[in-house]
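F.,

This is the one I mentioned.
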């Protein structure tokens, strides 16, 4: 027979509960069978001594380019989605991805921030990191409550994006903290009417009231209860800062009462964003976050800021510059490590990277075809090693959860979060006959992240084979640089 058979590996599939030596047969981009003694095929992969699992699904990846895909491939990722920010317009973004070809399966939500920028400033710039930074020079969309007419414009843009197949609505609330509750309630009502999730970067992240992380989660819980919208919390760890324990209790109670709330976290104590983010210019930054300005570090040259004046000057000069925000010291502070554990091990929570674009020393995002990446390409270690770090540290080394549960958080749970709204996700995150053939084969004992804050662009190791949409992308640890097997993940497009 033709096709592909992965034979003799330890097949770990959370959907079926299988954890046994077996074979996986692939035909025409789908899994044909899972079992033993499946015979031979045109192409054979000997997985003896290796783990065979569903490819990891990243709900929160901002790279969305060939170089970003390749780095994530070595992290075991087969589907990479930008849901927290999203894109606008939607249809043209999907067209561009298809035209240039993608390495991993890809998709995006509709971008609320750019809907707001368009409705409140008249700008029709397409969403991008550079356009986002430039838009932050106009404070109206950041600080102002939208008028009734502006809310109508925001909702019209979002509805159009959903009709074009956008995977829910990405709500970067922290970047426009002036947005009113009435507007956001209407946005959530729109999401509920379309049966899609919102992917929310909550409005506030302080450890103290007012405008604390706790207040932001109470708002999010209120939106879920009052509108029925599925509210997905992005990067729960970094949004909760050092108040994770209190915030866990709030979300757990809301979920226990049946509210449609899901969440994700990434396994690092350091976040990343653009320098122009409104929360950096808060006059009470240090008191509200319990952190000095030296916790903010420019990605391209590693420089840490010394004071508010220096940071504000840099914001004005280079608003779209990427920075790291060092929040939890998990290496030296046991309490901080326990807080991060609460976030990444939260029951039913997904692992998601918040992977950032790869940026060259001139500050421009790298979207070229060089492999390995250029030496001066920088990002955040999570852009290269999120999932492998999670499996290495929490599953293999610290044995906090089983391998089955680790893979569930990396593959099945992300698929389930999207399954109600996005039919294409119902066949991902699982090794079952008929499912999409997105498969990672890795050496459990050697699987490890290699990216650090001083050497970010080092691919993870231990992924021996990666199959995307039935096509081998990594074989015996070597990337096929010509391969472009990625397919769009998209909701059905409205005929209207």
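My design for it:
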């Amino acid at each position: 027979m033709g096709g592909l058979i992965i034979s003799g590996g330890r097949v770990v599939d959370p959907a079926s509960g299988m954890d046994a030596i077996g074979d996986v047969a692939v035909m025409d981009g789908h899994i044909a069978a899972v079992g033993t003694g499946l015979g031979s095929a045109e192409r054979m992969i000997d997985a003896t001594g290796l783990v065979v699992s569903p490819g990891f699904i990243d709900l929160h990846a901002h790279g969305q380019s060939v170089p970003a895909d390749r780095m994530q491939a070595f992290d075991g990722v087969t589907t990479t989605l930008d849901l927290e920010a999203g894109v606008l317009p939607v249809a043209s973004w999907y067209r561009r991805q298809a035209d240039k070809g993608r390495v991993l399966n890809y998709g995006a939500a509709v971008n609320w921030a750019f809907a707001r920028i368009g409705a409140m400033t008249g700008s029709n710039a397409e969403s991008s990191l550079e356009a986002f930074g430039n838009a932050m020079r106009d404070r109206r969309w950041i600080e102002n409550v939208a008028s009734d007419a502006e809310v109508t414009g925001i909702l019209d843009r979002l509805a159009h994006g959903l009709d074009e197949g956008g995977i829910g609505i990405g709500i970067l609330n922290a970047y426009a903290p002036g947005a009113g509750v009435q507007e956001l309630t209407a946005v959530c009502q729109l999401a509920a009417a379309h049966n899609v999730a919102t992917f929310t970067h909550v409005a506030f992240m302080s450890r103290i009231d007012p405008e604390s992380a706790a207040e932001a989660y109470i708002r999010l819980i209120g939106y879920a209860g009052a509108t029925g919208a599925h509210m997905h919390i992005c990067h729960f760890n970094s949004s909760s800062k050092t108040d994770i324990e209190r915030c866990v209790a709030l979300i757990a109670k809301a979920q226990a009462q049946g509210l449609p709330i899901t969440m994700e976290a990434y396994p690092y104590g350091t976040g990343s964003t653009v320098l122009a983010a409104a929360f950096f210019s808060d006059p009470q930054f240090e008191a509200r976050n319990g952190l000095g300005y030296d916790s903010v570090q420019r990605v391209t040259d590693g420089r840490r800021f010394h004071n508010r004046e220096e940071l504000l000057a840099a914001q004005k000069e280079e608003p779209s510059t990427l920075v790291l925000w060092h929040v939890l010291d998990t290496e030296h502070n046991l309490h901080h490590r326990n807080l991060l554990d609460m976030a990444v091990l939260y029951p039913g929570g997904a692992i998601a990277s918040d992977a950032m674009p790869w940026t060259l020393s001139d500050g421009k995002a790298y979207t070229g075809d060089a492999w390995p990446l250029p030496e001066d390409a920088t990002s955040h270690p999570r852009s290269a090693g999120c999932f492998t770090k999670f499996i290495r540290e929490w599953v293999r080394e610290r044995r906090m959860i089983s391998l089955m549960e680790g893979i569930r958080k990396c593959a099945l749970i992300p698929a389930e979060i999207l399954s109600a709204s996005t039919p294409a996700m119902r066949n991902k995150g699982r090794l079952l006959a008929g499912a999409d053939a997105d498969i990672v084969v890795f050496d459990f004992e050697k699987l490890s992240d290699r990216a650090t804050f001083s050497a970010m662009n080092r691919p993870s190791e231990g992924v021996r084979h990666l199959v995307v949409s039935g096509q081998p992308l990594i074989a015996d640890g070597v990337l096929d640089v010509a391969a472009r097997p990625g397919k769009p993940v998209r909701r059905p497009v409205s005929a209207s």
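The chain has a mean pLDDT of 96.

Talk soon.
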